[in-house]
């Protein structure tokens, strides 16, 4: 057996052979922890029944049927799962504390139970009474979900062995404790061991397992990212405190597309599905103001409209501020540089703030042109045409590249009452759906045409 490395960074999961105060890989301080070996777990005796036996790919193809899936009936959840929960699959649901993970999973547990699955909900954070109170608030007490308040992994595996459920929810993986690992709950070694034991036990016994994981301020599942590699599907539950909207995003999915989102609203009676996110993200838009742009985006299989807001002001600082919420900071820096170099719009000495309204987070490069438009609009104090949506990718040369699914974006914009779109030139003119389309070859002509000289 290979000698196991003995130290691991809790932030980036890098492995080192000796302890140090700062992680060489990610630069985090005080994040290196000793790892305990995983030699004699409760599951190890039953592992390896077919050790080393190779199977022929053609035989496998012949006997394999697609895995069975169960729908929860919550469309926003089923879509993110890739069309329902796959039997015996392992999932990780990450998110900030307090964002609503327990609420989401308790509601999902009740729905799956109502659709015929036997569900065990293991809470390591709350007592059974507290979970029941939450279920009462959510009006779920009539659903046949089994509750267990437990943190000892051995006891949990025994419960699962006895109950033989179809689905087990672990809330959260950071509270689980494997007694054969000498480390505190929440440490890398514990989280890794518990996730490993649970997933391998669940796979062997045909149980689907959903693990909740808290996220660090850096945006990673606290403790090891190795858990992300162990599971089939990783979902993030995101949202801004103070905003009721929550987005469930698939970042990895072995059984479906990885860029799908589901949109929810946190209400006094739990999470409600949002069937038309575009209307929601645009609902707070008042009359047109400089710096405000509507971006026609695509999230997974669905077009979603949202508003970018920019504010540009003379900076009192030697180094002007660049603050961004809901979009990538590096990408903002790139667009500022391209605006300056290729379109003659400098931002030197100016503070720049960029925000995506409603707590949405956009990752598509097709939002580049919307960001550039918001920035120039704010800088020039000039409003953009209120009846138009904007999308297109910007390259370093300043050229505009067409976005995928132009027609879907236009259709959604039209549905929400927009009559025009500003975008990149395409080789073949898209079906405009009756929308007034203004297509530009590059950023310089966009700035001249929309904002004049
Ligand atoms: P919770 O699911 O406990 O978050 P997590 O498990 O991610 O830590 O949700 C906590 C917040 O949700 C809490 O601030 C209260 C709020 N909430 C509602 O607004 N409505 C509800 O029906 C419920 C159950 C919670
Ligand atoms: Mg919770």
TrEMBL record:
GO terms for molecular function: ATP binding; ATP-dependent DNA damage sensor activity; damaged DNA binding; hydrolase activity; zinc ion binding. One of its GO terms (cellular component) is cytosol. Pfam families: AAA_25 (PF13481), ChlI (PF13541), Zn_ribbon_LapB (PF18073). Coiled coil: none annotated. GO terms for biological process: recombinational repair. This is DNA repair protein RadA. SMART domains: AAA. InterPro entries: AAA+_ATPase, DNA_repair_RadA, P-loop_NTPase, RecA_ATP-bd, Ribosomal_Su5_D2-typ_SF, Ribsml_uS5_D2-typ_fold_subgr, Rubredoxin_2. Residues 351-453 are annotated as: Lon-protease-like. The gene is radA. ATP binds at residues 95-102. The middle region has homology to RecA with ATPase motifs including the RadA KNRFG motif, while the C-terminus is homologous to Lon protease. Plays a role in repairing double-strand DNA breaks, probably involving stabilizing or processing branched DNA or blocked replication forks. It comes from Nereida ignava. Keywords: ATP-binding, DNA damage, DNA repair, DNA-binding, Hydrolase, Metal-binding, Nucleotide-binding, Stress response, Zinc, Zinc-finger.
């Amino acid at each position: 057996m290979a000698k196991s490395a003995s130290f691991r960074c809790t932030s980036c999961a890098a492995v080192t052979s000796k302890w140090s105060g700062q992680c060489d890989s990610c630069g985090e301080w005080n994040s290196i922890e000793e790892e305990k070996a995983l030699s004699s777990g409760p599951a190890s005796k039953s592992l390896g029944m077919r050790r080393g036996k190779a199977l022929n790919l053609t035989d496998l193809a012949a006997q394999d049927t697609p895995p069975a899936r169960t729908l929860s009936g919550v469309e926003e959840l089923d879509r993110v799962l890739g069309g329902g929960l796959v039997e015996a699959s392992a999932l990780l649901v990450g998110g900030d504390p307090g964002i609503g993970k327990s609420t989401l999973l308790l509601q999902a547990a009740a729905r799956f139970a109502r659709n015929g699955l036997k569900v065990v909900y293991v809470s390591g954070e709350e007592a059974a009474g507290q979970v029941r109170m939450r279920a009462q608030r959510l009006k779920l007490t009539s659903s046949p979900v089994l509750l267990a308040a437990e943190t000892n992994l051995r006891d949990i595996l025994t419960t699962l062995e006895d109950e033989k459920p179809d689905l087990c929810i672990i809330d959260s993986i950071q509270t689980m404790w494997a007694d054969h690992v000498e480390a505190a709950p929440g440490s890398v070694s514990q989280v890794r061991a518990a996730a490993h034991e649970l997933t391998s036990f669940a796979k062997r016994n045909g149980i689907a397992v959903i693990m909740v994981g808290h996220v660090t301020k850096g945006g990673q599942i606290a403790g090891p990212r190795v858990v992300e590699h162990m599971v089939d599907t990783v979902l993030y539950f995101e949202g801004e405190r103070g905003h009721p909207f929550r987005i469930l995003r698939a970042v990895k999915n072995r059984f479906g597309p990885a860029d799908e989102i589901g949109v929810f609203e946190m209400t006094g009676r739990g999470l409600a599905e949002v069937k038309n996110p575009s209307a929601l993200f645009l609902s707070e838009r008042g009359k047109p103001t400089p710096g405000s742009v509507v971006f026609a985006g695509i999230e997974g299989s669905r077009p979603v409209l949202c508003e970018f807001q920019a504010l540009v002001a003379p900076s009192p600082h030697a180094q002007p501020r660049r603050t961004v919420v809901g979009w990538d900071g590096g990408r903002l820096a790139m667009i500022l540089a391209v605006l300056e170099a290729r379109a003659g719009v400098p931002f030197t000495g100016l503070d720049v703030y960029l925000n995506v309204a409603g707590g949405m987070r956009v990752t598509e490069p097709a939002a580049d042109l919307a960001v550039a438009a918001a920035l120039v609009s704010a800088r020039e104090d000039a409003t953009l045409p209120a009846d138009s949506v904007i999308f297109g990718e910007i390259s370093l040369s300043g050229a505009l590249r067409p976005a995928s699914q132009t027609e879907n974006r236009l259709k959604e914009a039209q549905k929400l009452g927009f009559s025009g779109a500003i975008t990149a030139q395409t080789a073949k003119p898209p079906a405009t759906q009756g929308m007034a389309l203004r297509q530009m070859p590059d950023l310089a002509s966009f700035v001249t045409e929309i904002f004049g000289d």
